Amino acid sequence: MPASDAFERIAAHWPAVAERLGERREAFLTTAAQHAARHGLADALSQQRYLNLSFAFGPGFETRPQYEWALALLADERLLPQVKLHQLLHRAQAELQRSGGDAAALVRADGALLDAADAHARSQDADAVPLPRTACDIEAIDLRVLDTEWRHEYCLLDGQWQRVPGPPAPPALRIDATQLAPSVLAVLTHAAQQGPLARLQVRQALHAGCGERHPAVRWLGAEGLAHRQGHEARAASWPVMAMPPQPPATGLGLALAEEVSPAVCLLQLPTCGLRDTGVPLGPQQAQVWAYPADQWLFALQREAAPEAAWPAPAGHAAPPAATGPATRCHIERDGFALDARAWTAGFDQALAAAWRQGLDSLFTHWQRSAEAATMRATPGLLTGRAALTWGWREGPGGLAGEALLRVAGELDLACSLALSLEGEIDLGGSRARVALQAEGQAPLQRTLLRDTLRPGLLDTVLPLSMELRLPWQLSLDPIAHDDGLVWREAGPCSGALVLQAGLRPRQSGGSGWQWFVRASLEPVLAPVTLHDPLLGHTRRQLALLPALLLLDWSLG
Question: What is the distance between the alpha carbons of residues 194 and 490, in angstroms, rounded to a whole number?
């Protein structure tokens, strides 16, 4: 509405004031607009409503000592423009009634301005919400989670991992003038058809209600919009559902300690946000992040594999693989055992096959260096026992805090290897029997418990791995030669077999962890001395094996 039209609309309720202004009308409008802008009343409607107050008290009235209350309201940065003007109007009405002024004209003119703004808004949008006229605000909100008796976690008791009652539901969260609604609420629940659902209860105490649209509460989730209004909005609750589980593409059914994404819902408590005095609480809203409450247990027990020899015994195409159940896996979710055969096969078949393929490659390269080559290997890859349990839990902030993935476990594992290669090598017309040996073991023993936000999950689980570096030991046994040529080792050989194993972040994408074993071979170079009765001593560098990646296996 142009300023001139607003002046005429207001002047119709203040004819005596408009007549006294006469030629000073433009100066009056300019002064009122400047004072309104100075107090952050920049939009047209706010300036018009301030102009109406100027008709009642004069332009720049808030700067006069008797109207200090008006300056205090206009300078209060906690109040929105519409709240400032509503409270100014409420106080001004009382002042005019006390001093014998025309309070009715002030109220009628302000109502006419709001009616005109509503009519303009409806011309643009037939569903436009009318501007608030009366006090309507929330005094306090109480949020709590119901139906949580099913909560359990896995804990180590008397040497066994058992399900025990988990921590109680977080205490109720109160939202009021001293504690505004957090941007995110964390709720533990289950996916539909996957277990019992928690309920989020919302209770609100009103400061005042407009009676038309408020009180109200809205819940927007994956299943749609739920809306309660009036008496039903004072206390309402909804079942909260987590995201349906999405098993990883590995075919294993789960990923270890996976931080899955929560389902996100929106909770809204609308209100006009007007009070006659004081700072309104105003409309409140928060995202509700629904985390799956499933608690998982993964237990592993492995035995060492038997010794294997190359070349294969007569009648065998390859060294015989280990037989029998070398690995036992047990998986539970909330007390129910799940199919673990794919995990068992990953250890007993996939790991064994990958290890055999790596040693086949090693033996092939050894045959290129030595005649009558043989090889023997006794691996112990991730042998022993391990248990890992995980599941979501609220953080120290409860409903208003960040949720965390609780992880607990105990690893009593080891990696060992005894590897020997033998053969005959010709060097400068002289032959010798050569033996290379690498042997050693390393423990992987850890107890872990992550039940706080810091350290993070990465810092907690990443140390659950080990590295074993096995230097090669070289021995030479010269074979007698007619020319008297003999060669011997001239120092330790370089290179080692490096074995790494344990848990690492999944390499196939997504969160979670996987078991892994990696074995690599550094180049093996042996310094030797050739003794010739005629020519004397000659130093040589004998290349026995190249750098090789023997194994890079993972499961998870």
Answer: 68
Query: For residue 481, what are its two tokens?
Result: 């030669």
Question: For 336-394, how does the pLDDT look when each residue is reduced to its tens digit (9 = 90+)?
Answer: 999 999 999 999 999 999 999 999 999 999 999 999 999 999 999 999 999 999 999 99
* Residue entry with tokens 């029997």: 433
pTM: 0.84
> In which residue are the tokens 């019992």 written?
196
Q: Indicate the DSSP class of residue 62.
A: G
Secondary structure (H, E, C), 268-330: EECCCCECCCCCCCCCEEEEEEEEECCCEEEEEEECCCCCEEECCCCCCCCCCCCCCCCEEEE
> What is the average pLDDT across 540-551?
94
Instruction: Render pLDDT for 2-32 as a digit per residue (tens, 0 to 9).
Output: 556 778 889 999 999 888 988 898 899 999 9
- Helices 103-124, 81-99: inter-axial angle, 10-degree rounding: 150
Checking phi first, is residue 384 left (phi over 0); if not, alpha (psi -120 to 50) or beta? left
Amino acid identity at 54: S
DSSP per-residue string spanning 106-117: HHHHHHHHHHHH
Yes or no: say if 295 and 334 are a contact pair by the CB < 8 Å rule.
yes
First to last CA, the chain: 67
